[in-house]
Amino acid sequence: MKIDIPYKRWKKAVHRRSSRRKYYHEPIEEDLEILEKSVRELKREFPLSRVITKQKGFSEVSKNIIGSYGLITGASSYAIITGKTSEDDFKANIHAGVVGEGLILEATSLGLNTCWMGGFFDREEVSSEVEIEEDEEILAITPLGKAKDLLTITERLAKLASGSRKRKSLSELCDGDFSDKAKRWMKRAVKLSRLAPSAMNRQSWRFGTNGEELILRSAIQKNKQSVSPYLDCGMHYYIYW
Ligand SMILES: Cc1cc2nc3c(=O)[nH]c(=O)nc-3n(C[C@H](O)[C@H](O)[C@H](O)COP(=O)(O)O)c2cc1C
Description:
Blueprint: H1 7-16, H2 29-40, E1 49-54, H3 58-62, E2 77-83, H4 89-109, H5 123-127, E3 137-144, H6 153-161, H7 170-173, H8 178-181, H9 184-193, E4 205-209, E5 214-218, H10 229-234
Antiparallel strand pairs: 1-2, 2-3, 4-5
Helix pairs in contact: 1-4, 2-4
Bound molecules: flavin mononucleotide (FMN).
């Protein structure tokens, strides 16, 4: 199925995106419409996930969360990313990764800042803001807005705690025979993939090839206690175009 999405623009945004945690409290009404529209097309190929944007209320859903490694504050608007996990947990998380990262890359292209939040938010509060279907689960949220120009001290500490600037080397991310077998486009794609976000910056994705296809797998299995690694895997969809 051919879907019409701005791969070129989003690919550029991959380089510019980084998770930001301190925001100005500015409304972004018009941008929210553009954002929702931009990911609507993805629904056709990734129907197990939905993105819902909210103009206000981020502070309500993110407050009083003990243990947040980010303490993400200030934003007014946010987006909710859901997945139909009771239908197919693995697929739903992949779909949510694709659709959610699409939203994040479009937001980045519009000059907005974001931060995937997989665990540390008030799920009950978010559920009261949106109609969730029976087979659907809230998998993540992200603030949407303008981040403070300079990194604050707490934000620097959060980045340090999650080691967010560090990326694994290509040899750690790829199978031993990858560089011998991989075509040029595969090597380019994997370099771009290293920049993708992941929960706690765990970078659990691994790449292999049979010479014809680029194969992505997760180095860790799903653990009920933590954010699904398959959500992280969905982020790489845009990189191979
Ligand atoms: C699925 C997912 C869940 C995440 N959850 C959180 C979170 O709850 N709180 C937080 O501060 N950052 C969260 N992050 C952001 C990661 O810490 C960040 O992507 C990683 O450290 C790499 O940094 P970068 O995004 O600036 O490149 C999450 C990222 C992903 C992909």
